Structure formats: structure tokens, C-alpha cells
Amino acid sequence: MGDFLRRDLKVNCGDLLLLKLLVFLIILYRLSLDNLRIPRENLLNSVADVSPDGQYLSAIKDPDQRFGAFMAPLTTSRIPTAVVAMNATKIGLAITIRYSLTRRAFSIRPNEPEVLLLDYPSHQRRLIPLIAKTYAMSFASNYLMIYVKRTPESIKTVHVVSSALKGCREACGGQGIKTENHVGHLKSEYDVQLTFEGDKNVLMQQVSKALLVEILAAKKRNKPIKVLGLEHLNKPTPVILSHLTSSTLRTSQQQIDIFCLRERDLLQRFVTEVSGEGKHIFTVMYQLAEDVGRAFADRLVLQTFVDVEAIVPVGFLKDVLGLMRSMYVMIVMEEDSSFMRYGYLSIDNAAVVRKEVLKLCRKLRPHALALVSSFGIPDAFLGPIAFNWIDANVWSLV
């Protein structure tokens, strides 16, 4: 298989070089064609067609929807963008977690061994939530690649969801700076993904616009919403307990209710506040639009996590996944100021959430190595500090 791949690579290198050159030339110069006739059998006519007598035909009558359908194939590259981000994150976490399980620093008491980095609560707080977020985003990315069927009806769903999903170096200290440990390289390589396939703020505005269109259309038809996972808007408003506890916060139904309440309220605010702004709504209301997009993405990721967890048999793995799901929810609630800004969380409940993060860190600490090992990253992709940071820093005198 390796020889086959190498032969295939040699054959295609020239084509790849020509393709890169063509893309470069298109970027530098505007490509224009004049009096060019394309045979009908060679038309890219999945959305529209031209009849033999020269008439332009399309089953999509609305110009905006037709344009969206034409642009939909570009969404395909946005999907692997999210996956690439996950892969880079997994490698960085695998290196960092392994390093923190071998690197010791300072003793708590005299004549005792120095403490592992990951046994410090502050270090757990920095790394373990990232593992939970990586699992959550991985489940959502896999859903987008595998479970969403590419059909004309699902084109909008794929576009909106891919836009919404488009997320260690400091935790390794000086070791993270060394080139051989890969962490800095991963960060620099990923920087381009922040704007590749669209600025994240613009993408979130696209998401909120799509949600707005669906809500207004449903109101106009006076029918329930049945797309983009917005079916929860057809149900009664979720009720959040006035006093949250550790046990209530860890129930999947209460977590879903909190995320759905936030999305529902932000959508209602958005619909109300943009009604008088006309075509300039996203210029004036861009902050609220981004809040709406983020709420949609977070609810989608949580629902995907719950769906994955539901097919796992009762037992140890399911229990660990439940802890990871709860960690993801707590981190989202703690990091997004909209939960406090719009009153979804009281000050007292926000304090409970903050304490819950620390509790979950302690619960997940024994599983940290297993969780990053399950990423299945080959050893060759990991830096030396992922195995034995002491040996990696011994200078040979020979």
C-alpha cells in the first residue's frame, strides 16, 4: 500500500503543481471569458440548465435561493476545515497531557516527591476542559461529515451547520517553544484556519440570518418549524430551576433546556430588534447576530454529544462521557457572557457552575491519559516531551 501511495503521489505531483499555479493566477488576475461556448453536455447543471433552444431553466425560482444552491458546493471545503482544527487540537492536547503526566514541579511538603503538573488544580482547570470541548466538537464534526446526507433538501442544513462549527502551548512552559515538540508549529499552522473559508464573525451572521429566515417563514405559513434542529421552538418554553445544584446541572435534560432557552430567547430578541432595520440589520445588530449563531452552534454540539452518548451501553465509558458532556456544558456557560447578560443564569447559579468545573476536573483527572490516547494519534506525530521530557532535554556529550 505504501509503494502504491508513493507511485500515485509521483504521478499527481505535476498536476498538483499546475493546479496551485492556476489558483495563484486566478487570485492575481480576474478571469474573464468572452464569446466562449460551452457544450450543453459539459454544463455544471445540477441547479439550473439551458434548453437546446437557449432558454435558462431552473426548478429554484427564488434568485437568492438559487444563488445559495450554486454556492453550496463551496461549503464542502468548510467541513474538513473544522475537522483539521480538531486534528491539530488533538495532537496538541495529546502532547500536553502526556507532558503534564511526567513533568513534576515543587513539593508540597519537605522530603516528598515533586507534584505532577496535572495534579495541580490550576493545571487541570486549563487542560481538562479542553479535552471535553475537543470531544464535543469532534462528535459534531463527525455528524456533519457522516450523518448529514447530501441531498438538495439538506444543502441549507449543511451550509448553516458547517458555518456554525468552523475551536496548549502555554501549558507546556518553555518546552512548548521547542520546534521538536511540535506545539508551536501546530499553532502557527492553524492560524490560517481562523479566516480560511470565511471570517468567523461573518459566518455567525450567515447562521443567524438563516435562522431568522426560517422563523419568519414559519410564522408566515403559521406552521411549526421543522428544520435546523429548531423544533424545540414549537414546544413550551423550558423552565430552569431557580437553584441549580451539582446533580441537576449534570442531567442532560437540564443542560439541553438551558441551551434551548438561551437560543430561543436570543432568537426572539433578534427577530424583534431587527424588524425595523431593513437590509442593514447585520451592520447594526451584528453583536446580537453573533450571539444567536453561537447559541445555535453550542446547542447543536450538545445535542450531537447527547445523541452519541445515547448509543453507548450503560457502564464505565458512558459514565466518563457523561462527565465530559457536563464539562463541555459548564465551560460554555462559564465562558459566554450572554448567560449572565440576558439573565439565564443568576449570580448564585453562575457561582455553582464555576465550582462544578473544578469538581469535574477532579473527576476526569484519572482519565486524562486514556482520553487523549483514544484519539489514536501515532507516536510519530507527538513531540519528545509526550514520552520522556527529561531524556529529551539531556545533552549528549559524545
TrEMBL record:
Pfam families in the record: ACOX, ACOX_C_alpha1
GO CC terms on record?
peroxisome
Describe the location of the Acyl-CoA oxidase C-terminal domain by residue ranges.
Answer: 288-383
Q: Name one GO biological process term.
A: lipid homeostasis
Decide whether keyword Lipid metabolism is in the record.
Answer: yes
Keywords of this protein's UniProt record, alphabetized? FAD, Fatty acid metabolism, Flavoprotein, Lipid metabolism, Oxidoreductase, Peroxisome
Name the chemical reaction catalysed here: a 2,3-saturated acyl-CoA + O2 = a (2E)-enoyl-CoA + H2O2
**What are the GO MF terms of this UniProt record?**
acyl-CoA oxidase activity; FAD binding; fatty acid binding
Q: Where in the cell is it found?
A: Peroxisome
EC? 1.3.3.6
Family indicated by similarity: Belongs to the acyl-CoA oxidase family.
What protein am I looking at? acyl-CoA oxidase
Q: Tell me what organism the protein belongs to.
A: Lactuca virosa
Q: Source taxonomy lineage?
A: Eukaryota, Viridiplantae, Streptophyta, Embryophyta, Tracheophyta
